[in-house]
Amino acid sequence: MASSQSKRSAVYSSDQTAQTLSDAASRTNIEELRKSLPPDKKLMEGRQYLVRKSKRKAAYWEHYLEYLENGKLRAECKFCEKTFAADGNLNGSKNVKNHAEKCLCNPVNKDKGKGKQTELLFQPGEGDKDSEDGNGKLKYGTVNLKEVREALIHMIIVDELPFKHVEKAGFKYLMSVACPRFHIPSRTTVARDCFQLYMSEKTKLKELLKNCQRICVTTDTWTSIQRINYMCITAHFIDNDWKLHKKIINFCPISSHKGEAIGKAVEACLESWGIEDKLFTVTVDNASSNDLACAHLRRMVQRIGCVSDGKFLHIRCIAHIINLIVWDGIKEHGVCIDRVRNAVKYVKNSPARILRFKDLVQKANIESKSSLSFDVPTRWNSTYTMLDTALKFQRVFSGLSLPDGVGVKDNERPPESNDWKKVERLVVFLKGFYLLTRRISGSLYVTSNRGFFEIAAIYDMLNKWEKNVDEDFQAMAISMKKKYDKYWGNVEKMNMLIYVAAILDPHSKLLVVEITLTDMYGKEKGMKLANDVKDFSYSLFDEYRSLYSSLIPQSGQSGDPMSIDPNEDDHIGGGSDYMKSLRDRAKRLKGTGGYVRSEFERYLNEQLGAEEEEMDALSWWSINGHRFPIVSRMARDILAIPLSTVASESAFSAGGRHLDPFRSSLTPKMVQTLICTQDWLRTKGMSGVDIEENLQELEELEKDFQNNNLDDDVVYVDSMI
After folding, report:
1. Rounded mean pLDDT of 230-251?
2. Mean pLDDT, to the nearest integer, of 223-238?
3. Strands (E) located in 224-305
4. Other C-beta atoms within 10 Å of 662: how many?
5. Which residues 6+ apart lie within 8 Å of 530 measured at CB?
6. Nearest to 419 by CA among 365, 343, 476
7. Measuring CA to CA, which residue among 141, 249, 256 is closest to residue 205?
8. CA-to-CA separations, 169 to 173, 175, 188, in angstroms, rounded
9. Strand-strand pairing, 215-223 and 137-144
10. Cα distance between residue 572 and residue 561, in whole Å
11. Could you give the dihedral angle defined by the CA atoms of residues 109, 113, 119 and 123, in that order, rounded to the nearest 10 degrees?
12. 544: closest CA among 615, 658, 634?
């Protein structure tokens, strides 16, 4: 047996019995060897690989590369980095065979080997009659312990759980029942795994960013409970499949809130990701320091090269401007708001009063499912929600014994009928701003195409309220109009990309922008502004054409004559004299010789079909982008512009939960790891962590307790009721 084994190992191949292994290795074709490797496998530099002319008989050798090391034969796994001595005379082949059967990196072993645990499970099978009763058939499945650990890390990050969660008795008991063989890692190991997942996801995101055209950024700053200044940077971009992405790329400490420091920090972040040459716009709030930060970034992109020389890089947060406008108005009604706020606070601060309040609601036959809510005095949208809800229970508040009398401040007295009338009108007034703010604050859908029309809607609302017969609300509208004029009164000072974004929405294009400007500023001034917008749009198209000239098809320089849908005014909200002039001009152009249109003109004049009317902007471009290669490049950049900094501000809510008073020892590096990875792991549409209970669900639960006599032992005592 020994001599036969020696004979087999001594023979290298039928044609090479007299040749040494070293000579065989020197003749190995490395390029051919690389082609036989798995996609993610690379040959180690400096190793002397060899290939047999006649393969070994044992099948497991297909999973190995052979090489020489110090004159001795070794085997390297094709799927991991492990190596083994492969000299049959000295080492045998047991280790090589065992590893081939158990290597978890080998796709052949995906459903077997270590890390697997077979469990008996009750699962409803397809076509099982018992499945309707909640009873399933006994089946078995395979549990991958490695995947369980990865899922645990995913849960820790996405659900914002502390690392020590894995060391709590309840979690240990759960795992002992659900997966007894799973070894629960320590909190230190969990932290290390979180960082490894962060690095892995960062590598994937870098690859995605490398392939995108341009990137729009939002940024904001925040001071944590540790008294550390943090800055959040969020990248927004549209990929080649016309999907909008929002990714937090940095959540780091910053030396100060000064503009120069913010600008340098953003620049350093972009350079670390290798995307400094892709920066298109920066959306920030109206703090003066952000003007300096954007000026610094404009100089950066001018050095590298950018669209329009960085002139339109700075985008002001529309939500922040609306916030300033609304606060200038509602401060006129501070007393009635304070009175309603104190009435809500009086009820909410006592369980007994809440029960009394619910009892009065039932007696008054009020069917509203809303529940009273506190507001945050510095956030007007929460004040609107509080007033809107309280208004539905106006009759109930009159039945409560609210604090009144000597010693009670005027703004803390119970709301009077006149107060409720003011609140009722205030809710109607604020509702438009509330809905508008929600529309432009989204980060999972395109908002830039709505920006100009939302600004026009505010203008229209304020003009109507300025003519209101109620002097209080007329004064409020006038005050808000002054703040509006400060930021948006001079349209020429607005960022021109806001107009182009509206034009690049196939549902509006240039015509609707012209009509809107005419409605806002009159025909003469409106048409002048419309022509300025048109000229800028064409110049921007020419700039993109020079950048991507190789994409222009030869047939794209001319096309069919301009056509205007005679019924177009029916589906854009009304006609105008300008529509008639457009048709007349179109007829004249049709009859002129040499009428040549650019790709941009073809886009502007093409009408939407019935099915296309129902599409959103990105869906339309994903289908039609190939017909407009240059305009689609413009759309991919400009439609990705966010109109608010909500995407970055929302990260601070997560930061506040990670760094609460009971858990404030996380290092800045770990804070960034958790917040960024959480953002990357969340799928589109997945809601964030909601730390507030759903009051309606809790009330339904309480009713179930009452129906089942589960709360008989609960006694509420309140001497002030």
Report:
1. 92
2. 84
3. 229-238, 244-253, 279-284
4. 7
5. 510, 513, 514, 517, 518
6. 343
7. 249
8. 6, 10, 17
9. unpaired
10. 23
11. 0
12. 634
- Locus of tokens 């107060």: 419
Contact status, residue 380 vs residue 390, Cβ threshold 8 Å: no
**171/161 Cα distance (integer angstroms):** 12
Other beta carbons less than 10 A from residue 277's beta carbon: 14
Instruction: Give the chain's end-to-end CA distance (angstroms, integer).
Output: 98
Among 384, 388, 355, CA closest to 370: 388
Looking up tokens 């894995």 gives 166
The closest of 425, 407, 423 to 338, measured between CA atoms, is 423
Of 219, 248, 258, 224, give the one whose Cα is nearest residue 653.
Answer: 224
Residue count of the chain, please give it.
Answer: 721
Residue whose C-alpha is closest to residue 57's, from 83, 93, 21, 3: 93
Average pLDDT score, the chain: 79
Task: Judge whether residue 565 has pLDDT over 50.
Answer: no
Q: Which two tokens stand for residue 712?
A: 């008989």
Distance of CA 266 to the CA centre of its chain: 19
**Distance separating alpha carbons of residues 507 and 500, to the nearest angstrom:** 13
- CA angle centred on 471, ends 476 and 331, rounded to 5°: 30
For residue 67, give both structure tokens: 């090489």
How large is the average pLDDT for residues 286-302?
A: 91
Question: What tens digit of pLDDT does each residue of 77-87 get?
Answer: 988 888 888 87
Phi/psi at 220 (5° precision): -155, 165
Chain segment 255-278, per-residue pLDDT in tens: 888 889 999 999 999 999 999 999
In three-state secondary structure terms, 144 is: strand
Contact 502, 494 (CB under 8 A): no
From the list 330, 324, 346, 236, the residue with the least C-alpha distance to 283 is: 236
Contact 466, 437 (CB under 8 A): no
Q: Does residue 42 contact residue 65 with C-beta atoms inside 8 Å?
A: no
Dump pLDDT digits (tens) for 647-689: 666 665 554 554 555 455 678 888 889 989 999 998 654 555 4
Residue 115, token pair as written in the block: 């890390």
Q: Which amino acid is located at 621 in the chain?
A: W
Query: In this predicted structure, what is the pLDDT of residue 225?
Result: 67
Answer whether 509's CB lies under 8 Å from 503's CB: yes
Q: What is the pLDDT at residue 617?
A: 92
Mean of the pLDDT values across residues 187-211?
93
Query: Do residues 206 and 274 lie in contact, with contact meaning Cβ atoms separated by under 8 Å?
Result: yes
E strand residue ranges, 5-115:
48-50, 64-69, 72-77, 83-85
State the pLDDT at residue 641.
94
Short-list 582, 559, 556, 560, CA closest to 569: 582
Identify the H or E element spanning 315: strand 314-316
Between 18-27, 351-360, 417-426, the lowest mean confidence (pLDDT) is in 18-27
pLDDT greater at residue 195 or residue 704: 195
Return the pLDDT at 464.
85
What is the pLDDT at residue 569? 41
